[in-house]
């Protein structure tokens, strides 16, 4: 069963193994996520589980439509909604949805066929709307892939952005960090698309595969992932099993 959760990157530290080896880890705080929707292939065209994360203190930060969607799943005001395809979440706690909310969810699943609001995925073992997903769905040593928006570097040249080498720095050279020639003149008389040129660096979605869970602190809702992961401090991070 594949696991998935949405958390917040706190930063990096290190832990020590039993033999005294220092292991660098990234600390991700993943408060319990709420299952807010189940997508089914026969109705929505694909299979997915929607998780809500990152609670907000003031409901006014969300629209009424967002609050209504979360209320049907028995969830509070949460800022982030993420869908994970072909994932079965586990390790959480059963849903605690009051009777009116459950009735609303069932009614919505019947009336809003295109919305994908459903109480179950069609099987008893699958996740249900309103279930809580915690870090307990992962285990130490498990391989995961982590997705986040990388740190923005702004507008950078070719040396920093594409690891170009420098030009000569002596004898009056003015071509120290310039990109150099980018194409012919008469034919084709243009610059081809996709060439390595200066431009915006970073601030894009990056998925890092092959990461490993070093340790789990279920009491404090922490995931310790070996090595570095994409994203800056306090960035929203998506973690799912790699396989």
> Helix/strand-derived class?
mainly beta
Alpha plus pi helix count: 4
The total of beta strands comes to 12
Strand order of the largest sheet: 1-2-11-10-7-12
CATH architecture of the largest domain: 2-Layer Sandwich
Strand-and-helix sequence, N→C?
A: EEEHEHEHEEEHEEEE
Broad shape: extended
Most strands sheet: 6 strands, antiparallel, barrel
How far is the N terminus from the C terminus?
Answer: 10 Å
Q: Unreliable runs, pLDDT <50, ≥5 residues?
A: 94-103, 105-123
What's the gyration radius in Å?
Answer: 23 Å
Strand residue content: 25-35%
Domain module tally: 3
Using the coordinates above, name the CATH class of the largest domain. Answer: Alpha Beta
Can you characterise this structure?
The radius of gyration is 23 Å and the shape is extended. It has 243 residues and is mainly beta. It starts with a strand and ends with a strand. It has four helices and twelve strands. Residues 94-103 and 105-123 have low confidence and may be disordered. The strands form three sheets. The protein has a six-stranded antiparallel beta barrel with strand order 1-2-11-10-7-12. The protein has three domains: 10-30 and 138-152 and 203-243, Translation factors (Elongation Factor Tu (Ef-tu), domain 3, Beta Barrel), CATH 2.40.30.10; 34-133, Double Stranded RNA Binding Domain (2-Layer Sandwich), CATH 3.30.160; 154-180, no CATH class. 26% of the residues are buried. Strand 10 (205-217) and strand 11 form a beta hairpin. 13% of the residues lie in helices and 34% in strands. The chain has helices at residues 41-44, 64-72, 99-111, 158-162, and strands at 4-16, 22-29, 33-39, 48-55, 78-85, 132-133, 143-149, 154-156, 199-201, 205-217, 222-226, 236-241.
């Amino acid at each position: 069963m594949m696991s998935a959760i949405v958390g917040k990157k706190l930063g990096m530290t290190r832990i020590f193994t039993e033999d005294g080896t220092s292991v660098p880890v990234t600390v991700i705080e993943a408060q319990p996520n709420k299952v807010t929707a189940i997508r089914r292939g026969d109705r929505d065209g694909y299979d997915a589980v929607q998780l809500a994360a990152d609670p907000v203190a003031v409901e006014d930060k969300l629209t009424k439509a967002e609050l209504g969607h979360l209320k049907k799943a028995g969830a509070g005001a949460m800022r982030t909604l993420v869908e994970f395809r072909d994932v079965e979440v586990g390790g959480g706690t059963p849903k605690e949805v009051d009777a009116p909310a459950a009735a609303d969810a069932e009614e919505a699943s019947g009336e809003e066929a295109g919305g994908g609001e459903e109480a179950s995925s069609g099987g008893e073992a699958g996740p249900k709307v309103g279930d809580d997903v915690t870090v307990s769905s992962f285990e130490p040593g498990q391989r995961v892939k982590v997705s986040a928006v990388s740190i923005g570097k702004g507008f950078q040249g070719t040396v920093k952005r594409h690891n170009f080498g420098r030009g000569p720095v002596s004898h009056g050279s003015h071509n120290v960090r310039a990109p150099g020639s980018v194409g012919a003149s008469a034919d084709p008389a243009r610059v081809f698309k996709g060439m390595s040129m200066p431009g915006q660096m970073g601030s894009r979605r990056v998925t890092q595969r092959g990461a490993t869970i070093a340790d789990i602190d279920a009491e404090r809702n922490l995931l310790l992932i070996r090595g570095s992961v994409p994203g800056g401090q306090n960035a929203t991070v998506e973690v799912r099993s790699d396989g």
